[in-house]
Amino acid sequence: MSQRVTRSSRLSQGAAVLGLLVLILLAAAPWWAGRADMRLMGEIFLYLSLATLWNLLAGYAGLVSVGQQAYVGLGGYALFALTILAGVPALWAIPLAGLLGALVAVPVAALIFRLRGAYFAIGTWVIAEVFRLGAAQVSALGGGSGTSLPADVVRAMASGRDAREALAYWLALGVAMAVIGLAFAILRSRLGLALMALRDNELAARSLGINIWRTKFIVYVATAGLTTLIGALIFVQKLRISPDAGFSVNDWTAFVIFIVVIGGIGTLEGPIIGTLVFFALRETMADMGSVYLIALGVVAIVVMLRAPAGIWGLIRARTGAELFPISHRVRGTTTKETADGKKA
Amino acid sequence: MGELLKLEAVRRAYGAVVVADAQSWSLAEGEALGVIGPNGAGKTSMFNLITGTLNPQSGRIYFAGQDITDWPAARRCRAGMARSFQVPQPFGGMTVYENALVAATQGAGARGARAEAICLDVLARTGLMPKANARAGSLTLLERKRLELARALCTQPRLLLLDEIAGGLTDGECHSLVQTIRDVRATGVSIIWIEHVVHALLAVVDRLIVVDFGRLIADGAPQAIMASREVREIYLGLDADV
Lengths: 344, 242
Ligand SMILES: Nc1ncnc2c1ncn2[C@@H]1O[C@H](COP(=O)(O)OP(=O)(O)OP(=O)(O)O)[C@@H](O)[C@H]1O
Ligand SMILES: [Mg+2]
What we know:
The complex is a heterodimer. Chain A has helices at 10-27, 29-32, 35-60, 69-85, 90-112, 117-136, 151-157, 161-188, 190-200, 202-207, 212-238, 243-246, 249-263, 269-285, 290-306, 310-319, 335-343, and strands spanning 4-6, 147-148, 240-241, 329-331. Chain A is an all-alpha fold. The longest helix of chain A is centred in the middle third of the chain and has 28 residues, at 161-188. In chain B, strand 4 and strand 5 (66-67) form a beta hairpin.
């Protein structure tokens, strides 16, 4: 009797093919979609990226941050500072912002990792507030009222408005794919296995050799850097920043948490579904003002009561489905299964 | 044979309850040591102190010649010690195979095909192969205890610490468990085994210590210790609640 370990399933292979087709279709959007639709899709990709990162942080590493707007705002401000004050081209400023975010996250992690549970969450929020107040002090970038990206910086990005819109769209799509791909690669790796283990049982995790602090630190710094990079991308599209917009807890954390919780925290599929639900609600009800926010609240409450693991959590519990093949399956564990395996 | 583990005046108390009272003893490389003592004597606490999930208030602990007193638990595991928990601590949302894989990749530092081979071998040896794809959270208590043993073995330890893994087994199961542990020992792994099922313990160990109120009250050859009056009194007490 011999066993072997497999990871993909027919479903995940099918999902990969379908995903590739959708990706090709999306990459061609500048040829088939209007300007407004492309903007909306770009925003969807950026929210999908933020949600995937927050999910990695809270859903896998157990670091429930309500202060990720600190990095979105930092990214926006880094973009404006690098282009306006240092004359760096906008396309270079975006990855530099990501690097800066990761660097800033190192001392921040050393500080807030001393806090546990709810205190950790509050700590992340306090840090974000400090960043916001700090940004308001930078008079070269408009202080409390913010500033706009100068026209020559914007023009230097691409020749003509259509080319610039297409570029911004592709950047958003590319970053979303890179973030999902990275999250998938992490979760399939030793690091991902360690994350899932410590999420399940910290005592057993450390007794089996997992350095919990280091594992969480890596995830925190990586997600912070990428969140900062996304922040720079967001404000390349918005062309204007202010402390309140850059460090908005509503826009960059509350909505993101909504997306992840609705879709299914602790699954890679969850944020994708959650993003689609969120934007479907927003686009159909955006004109209704506060009714829209009430609807978001109602959806959140219903999902939390009916499906605490989110929409994908419910589907997975019922069917065992997995679109991103992360888990391991041992084939040939019993004689019966070996027989089945031979038939297949 | 060199010393693998050494405790030097290790002390720990919870308020007035002393769980380790200036314990000083050592374990030779390749030795199999049995630990007995009444409930609440401090046996599990001794394991917690050795593996680093509990810190001593004073005293030092050495492993393979190094002072590990201030090392975190994870580092001690990677240095070659692994334990089973008396109250099983599975990764409930992961499969049995994935539980083993955590131990092989983290504790033993193995990767890829080697990690896979370690896990499949250990699952076969511990009789868990039919459950390889089951969620660990869905296992029965006995299966969870077996998973504790399997995970510890997957870290490829030099020192294996077992905390009451034979309770509740049928005679046949107990016999095969003893055989499994003997096989592990034959590969050169040192063992410390806390067990209330004394006949299983005596089939494996070549030295026995008796703990009471955090103190070592006897230490020596198993047959001599089981024959002593003081131990028989405790042992009879144990017999009543096994
Ligand atoms: N975290 C703790 N806080 C307070 N007291 C504790 C704690 N852990 C253990 N104790 C106490 O320390 C004593 C020793 O416990 P320990 O678990 O080491 O005993 P044991 O010898 O393993 O017993 P058993 O045979 O029942 O497993 C017990 O009286 C227990 O109640
Ligand atoms: Mg105990």
